[in-house]
Write a structure and sequence with these properties.
This protein is 34% helix and 15% strand. With 382 residues, it is α+β, with helices and mostly antiparallel strands. The relative contact order is 0.19.
Length: 382
């Protein structure tokens, strides 16, 4: 269980050691780092499935929840760079039904910066409705905003992916998962999917939800801030209270659906390679220009969050420090995922990082496992 597999450059032995330190807190995990366009850490260990004892293999993939948002945002910026989308175009110009209930002025950039006021999805939906895509998009188009668009930012945990994905579909005729597969996964050889093919189901690690609190004070605190009547509770469990972090995410139908904010599945190696290609050329492929990277990571919203009871900081679709992670320095950009996963790039230091695990931990202020890895990474190069 505690054995670390893989490879690393001697300079980055501290990252491997931090990974080994984490393993007692994991079921299974993997971490990969690219530096100056080449992999310098690629390690894995633990179990892909606790019950069967199946080990985490070199090609084991895991669900990364909101870490998916960084990939989704990158594809949107790539389409902006190509003239297919415009950040200052109203969403309703692409999607006329979206203008209902006073939403006609919401811009694509408002969605990327979590200022659209549509964090919680209204409507009485079944899981089948949500997984089918169109019913949940229809519900978003018909609903009233949760707050006046553009007046505040608040984390759009799931609606971020549906709104951007529908804009991409209307502009290109392809789903965001298809665009990702063609524009990023195929040219870079990435083991990552937004909408998992049936043929890849067997290689996905079993997800284990975060431990339930037993302290009555913690239970009361969770109810106060995340109860079903709170905005945060509606955002994280919605729509229609369908989503909880646990076994449902192991269902093949949930893995196979496209939720571009929430259910990307892949390897740590794919995440690091992806971000390396965002900030530099990898085997002839670069995903964004330097100008697009600088625009995407420029601070757009910071301060009190209308959904999460903490200050947050966003660029155009990406989390920025300190929200990205307390160990991530100024200038880095990317996205963490619920329970612990993390992927980001640091253009100045030519770094790209990916971390995937299958034992979720509770917390909205960062994960100590990824923090150890990132701290060790920067100690290795500074």
């Amino acid at each position: 269980m505690s054995e670390v597999h893989g490879r690393f450059e001697p300079r980055f032995a501290a990252v491997r050691d931090a990974f080994a330190q984490n393993l007692p807190e994991e079921v299974g995990a993997a971490c990969c780092v690219y530096w100056r366009g080449a992999p310098v850490v690629d390690v894995w260990g633990g179990l892909a499935d606790r019950d069967s004892g199946a080990p985490w293999q070199e090609d084991t993939a895991g669900i990364v929840f909101s870490t998916t948002k960084g990939l989704t945002a990158t594809l949107v910026h790539r389409l902006v760079e190509g003239g297919v989308l415009d950040l200052d175009t109203p969403v309703a110009a692409l999607w006329p039904e979206f203008a209902a209930e006073g939403k006609g002025g919401i811009l694509l950039r408002d969605v990327l910066t979590h200022r659209a006021g549509l964090a919680a999805v209204d409507g009485n939906l079944t899981l089948e409705d949500v997984l089918a895509w169109q019913p949940v998009c229809d519900a978003i188009a018909a609903q009233k905003p949760n707050w006046e668009p553009g007046t505040a930012h608040g984390y759009h945990a799931r609606s971020f992916g549906w709104i951007l994905g529908e804009c991409v579909r209307r502009a290109t005729g392809k789903t965001l998962g298809q665009v990702f597969a063609e524009e990023a996964a195929a040219p870079l050889g990435l083991d990552f999917w937004i909408g998992l093919p049936d043929a890849e189901q067997a290689r996905v690690a079993t997800l284990y939800g975060p431990p339930e609190p037993t302290d009555p004070k913690l239970i009361a605190l969770r109810e106060k801030f995340m109860g079903p009547e709170t905005l945060l509770g509606r955002v994280l469990s919605g729509p229609s209270n369908l989503f909880q972090y646990g076994p449902m995410w192991n269902e093949p139908a949930v893995r196979a659906a496209e939720m571009p904010s929430s259910n990307g599945i892949g390897t740590a190696r794919a995440l690091a390679r992806f971000y390396a290609a965002v900030i530099g050329e990898i085997d002839g492929t670069r995903l964004l220009s330097s100008a697009s990277v600088d625009r995407a990571r420029a601070e757009q919203a910071s301060g009190d969050d209308a959904v999460i009871p903490l200050p947050t900081t966003f660029g155009l679709g990406f989390m920025l420090p300190p929200t990205l992670g307390v160990a991530c320095p100024e200038g880095s950009f990317g996205h963490p995922g619920a329970g612990g996963s993390l992927a980001f790039a640091d253009p100045e230091r030519e770094l790209a990082f990916g971390y995937v695990m299958n034992q979720m931990q509770t917390g909205i202020t960062g994960d100590p496992r990824s923090e150890r890895l990132v701290e060790a990474l920067y100690a290795s190069i500074d």
